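User: Please predict the structure of the protein below. I'd like the answer in structure-token form so I can feed it into my own downstream comparison script.

Assistant: Understood. Taking the following sequence of 254 residues as input:
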Amino acid sequence: MNPDRKPLIAANWKMHKTPVEAIAFMERLQKETGPLDDREVLVAPPFTAIQALGNILRQKGYSLGAQNCHWEEKGAYTGEISTPMLKDLGCSYVIVGHSERRQLFGETDQTVRLKTAAVIKAGMTPVVCLGEVLEEREQGRTFEVIDKQLKGALQGFSAEQMSGVVIAYEPVWAIGTGRTATPEQAQEVHAHIRGTISSFFSTAIEKTVRILYGGSVKPSNVDALMAQPDIDGALVGGASLEVGSFASLIHFNV
């Protein structure tokens, strides 16, 4: 963790929690954690709970986000949600290109790029997800896959636009499996991502962009992960669904 980049601990609740459950969770969490000065917490609930959380998310250091969006501002896209709609509900972040969206719903680098552009245009921060599957890692293709995803998702953006982008490295083989990349493995990929961003844009962007790690992050491993120089936070799934475990992640020690 670099002290010049404020750590970001992001909760991706996926398809969990009704609005009533989300409110109860957040009221307890905010009481337990208190105001936050040196770190930021992002909560991305299901679409149905965004407005409910927006009404109670008032504590310093907390931000509201969405798990997905469409790249058009309006139109005949049944079942989709636009970035202006999310912005109007109080969202300041949107997760794009999560591996589950890529694997289960056919998202591509091109659609991730379109969604990233839409989020930036709406004045919100995209959390762009990248990561390799187990077969690609075993074949030694991790960097190749990451570079392709980075280029495909971020091509055409200016350095100014990139300054507001968050990257999340999530090895697909470690998501929801209980397997976690070692801190050293995660750091190696994070350092590579940072270097690739520098080659695409500039050293200044490389130094400021936040790169999160996602993949079975839990209280028992968060300290070791956050101690790495290029890991600026975590994108958390299962461990963000319980107040106690998520509070422990928020209060990581380095």
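That's the full token string. The longest strand covers residues 125-130.
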